[in-house]
Amino acid sequence: MKSIVHADKVLQGVTVIIEDLKSHPKCPHGPTLLFSRENQRKFYACAACRDRKLCSFFLWQDELNKLSQSKLEVWEKERKKFLKGINHKKRFIMLNKIKALLPNKRTFCQTCSMFTLEHENKHVEHSLLSNITDYQLEHPSEIMPALENAKKEAQYLFSKESVQFIVNTFLELKYKHVICIGTPRIHEYIQSNVKTLSSILLDIDDRFHNFFGPLDFCWYNSFNNHFFFEEAKQVFEDFLKGTNNKDTVLITDPPFGGRIEPLAQTFSAISAQYGKNKLPMFWIFPYFMEPQILNSFSDFQMLDYKVLYDNHSLFQNGPKGRKQGSPVRIFTNISPSLIKLPNDLYKFCQDCNKWVSNENKHCKVCQDCTSKNGQTYAHCNKCRRCVKPNWQHCFKCNRCAQQDHKCGNILFSGVCLNCNKKGHKKLQCPLLNNTKKRKSKFKQAANKKLKH
């Protein structure tokens, strides 16, 4: 439900160092993350905000043990100030009072993000939403103004069509419990429409305290696996215990501009906390982030289903939408053969044993349905792979590229997802190639022994 950003300029060339966060200093958003920029000093910064204007916390790692007591007290004061005024139990009591009123007596102050009663005059000059229906109380994401800061929690919300598809898929797969991380519309739909499913919402938007009880919503930061209140952490642990380590699925729609590494650490931790059985996951993310996700979760596969959103024109169908359809996909550790996609826009590929988009044609050479971006890819014999239809093979560059490209060696400016070194991609990683060669030699030797 978040903003789509290819990369934040402030984080280009920055590496997230994944380690236990217990020893890390805390900002109001929980334990900070440790970053490094090439060979420079390592530093701690906020896990949730990718802009110092939103959270000013910054600390060089080598200064951690030199902190004065006064500095620690300032940070603790900031943390308490951030949490001040949020009492989930009191807000739940207010919600029940509002539910007991007629719709024309119900008022929500959008300025203060709280319900108000008629005799409370302090909200008179604020932005007020009145005549709130029962449906709106159960679907707060449809009445609350969407948060718009792309470097923290900018909200893009699933369309009803995508919500129904996802929840129906959960039902077909016989799940009974759903962990919704940053997916309020999935939680809302389950709570109000599906009695056979139980769900819990974990989200960084604290406004949901007004609409869901303490057993249904936890104020949470997914980038550091942080619950803002200990009571909420206990609620989630109890929810996991109640699943008996079965029939449970996790669905998440994190900010598209956020770092994948800490998210992967969080979801791995939840999976370990879940128990011995594998925790099924549905990770909603753009198709072009597939290499990064597979680097963290090698057992994940990308479905062809195009996830639609209500409040972003590029993520919708129709004249205002992207020509190739929404670029957002579902990444999952569930076999794609078990997930049936809608008949009108998708088809079943017998060779791949999975549902694919109508424009995705099976390549007999690659032995796969290769389209990623909503176009029909074409196979290039020289490159030995399928490429976008508007690309042509360039003999000077010895690769396929756009027709108007500038010839010459293109140096990869990013970092290898295997060895974390610059200058090459994971596919060209010499360490990975050496491993493949060793495995190949081992197989050949094993086959020779079997023949003898």
Explain what this protein looks like in three dimensions.
By secondary structure, the chain is of the alpha+beta class. The protein folds into four domains: 7-83, no CATH class; 85-132, no CATH class; 151-357, Rossmann fold (3-Layer(aba) Sandwich); 372-451, no CATH class. It contains nine helices and 25 strands. It has helices at 69-83, 88-100, 134-138, 160-172, 184-193, 230-242, 260-274, 290-296, 430-451; strands at residues 14-17, 26-27, 30-31, 33-37, 43-45, 58-60, 107-109, 114-116, 128-130, 177-181, 198-203, 217-221, 226-227, 248-252, 281-286, 301-302, 328-332, 346-349, 354-357, 362-363, 368-369, 378-380, 385-387, 391-394, 399-402. The chain has an eight-stranded mixed beta sheet, with helices on both faces. Strands 1-4-5-6 form a four-stranded antiparallel beta sheet, with no helix packed on it. A three-stranded antiparallel beta sheet has the order 8-7-9, with helices on one face. It is globular, with a radius of gyration of 25 Å. The N and C termini lie far apart (59 Å).
